[in-house]
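Narrative of activities, Objective 1.

The group set out to show that a structural description can be obtained from nothing but a protein's sequence at a throughput compatible with the screening campaign. Below is one input-output pair from the validation batch, recorded exactly as produced.
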Amino acid sequence: MPMVKTVDIKQTLIDAKDGSLKSPKIDQEKFRESLIFAIVKHDLPFSFVEYNWIREVFEYLNADIKNITRNTAKMDVLKFYANEARKEFDNFESEEYVTSAQKSQLELYLDEPKIDRNTQPDLDILQYWKAQQFRYPDLSKMAFDILAIPITTVASEPAFSIRGRVLDQYCSSLKPEVVEALICTRDWIFGNEGGFKSF
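Output recorded for this entry:
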């Protein structure tokens, strides 16, 4: 059943000048913006604006509404997205400016003049970071963690394998996490027995 095009008395306003009834003026930009919000929020297709029943409802509500096409809706959504992305970027830049005013420990450390190793040939790096632990607490912890690792020239596989190769021709394409799980599991199962089974 087609919708009857009538004007409801609630949809009209009385003109103050001559007392005649007229339809309320519609803001076309606000109408298009509302359509875009509906399309985005409810994940509607752009062709939603071209559905006959939708157009008839809009025209019923206000005969002055200018219906848009799916291409116009698409362009409006893209324009809306670009504006929102620009706002987001501006907000990010302003937050970045605020946080950049407060320098991190690393930035403060890197801004310091370098220590001349010619004037201090006996510099003990561990003592240096111990002295700096209150000034740069996070950096000193990192330095202690990194400097505590012994330097070695031994290949890692023979150092960690149990009487044989960990990776053979069949296991060489495994991810590191899987290899680690295999080594740990083998150690848990055969660690006390001293036995070894190849993968």
